[in-house]
Specification:
The protein is of the alpha+beta class. The chain folds into three domains: 1-63, no CATH class; 66-95; 100-192, 2-Layer Sandwich (GMP Synthetase, Chain A, domain 3), CATH 3.30.300.30. 49% of the residues lie in helices and 17% in strands. It is built from six helices and five strands, in the order ααααββαββαβ. The strands form two sheets. It has a three-stranded mixed sheet with strand order 3-4-5. α5 packs antiparallel against α6 (160-179). The longest helix has 30 residues, at 2-31. The chain starts with a helix and ends in a 9-residue tail after the last strand.
Length: 201
């Protein structure tokens, strides 16, 4: 998915850049009256031929409004553009999760470790600690300098200080050593599990 997203981003940026460049050159040429000076005839139907002309005349803007197909096409095209923009935005937000970690294999080249696999291993080790009901681990940062975000749901009898200490000393340290990283910063968020009130007789 990250490779596909990178390719889509490059294509979109290239298309938008080319469109803006073409429009800017056309505006500049018309504003400087270059077609008349150079003896070049604009294409047929091109309304902007000189500095005093407008890009779209009133006739151009209103010629299709009375057609029955015009408004459904406009609304449909805008809806498609909106959906594509929302997909792109959500994909950008999802990219914050690190897909792979660069592991020093000792040969100068390195190997790639799947980020999801590392997250699952750390989460399983955190959940094995006393007083932890559930753990959610997210890998962020760069491939060569990853960081962990750990959300921990604590049981009522848990000792938060001891849990955080063991999380750093065991789960995080094991992951750091296994990946051959010099450091593995971690952000821990603790939350207490809700439990029903006890009746005292």
């Amino acid at each position: 998915m990250p490779r596909v997203l990178r390719a889509v981003n490059r294509v979109l940026l290239a298309l938008v850049g080319l469109a803006l460049l073409g429009l800017g050159l056309a505006v500049l040429a018309a504003a400087m009256d270059l077609p008349r000076r150079w003896g070049v005839s604009p294409p047929d139907g091109w309304s902007w031929r000189g500095p005093d002309d407008v890009l779209l005349t009133r006739a151009d803007r209103t010629q299709w409004r009375d057609e029955g197909w015009w408004w459904p096409v406009v609304i449909g095209a805008l809806a498609v553009l909106l959906l594509l923009a929302l997909w792109w935005l959500l994909a950008q937000l999802r990219r914050r999760r690190l897909a792979e970690v660069l592991v020093d294999s000792g040969d100068g080249v390195g190997a790639l470790l799947r980020g999801r696999a590392m997250e699952d291993v750390v989460a399983a080790e955190v959940e094995s600690l006393p007083g932890v009901e559930r753990a959610r681990v997210t890998l962020v940062g760069r491939r060569s300098q990853p960081r962990l975000r750990v959300g921990v749901l604590l049981a009522p009898q848990a000792r938060p200080g001891e849990t955080v200490r063991r999380l750093h000393a065991e789960a995080v340290e094991h992951a750091r050593a296994s990946a051959g990283l010099a450091a593995l910063p971690v952000e821990v968020r603790l939350r207490a599990a809700k439990h029903p009130a006890e009746r005292v007789s």
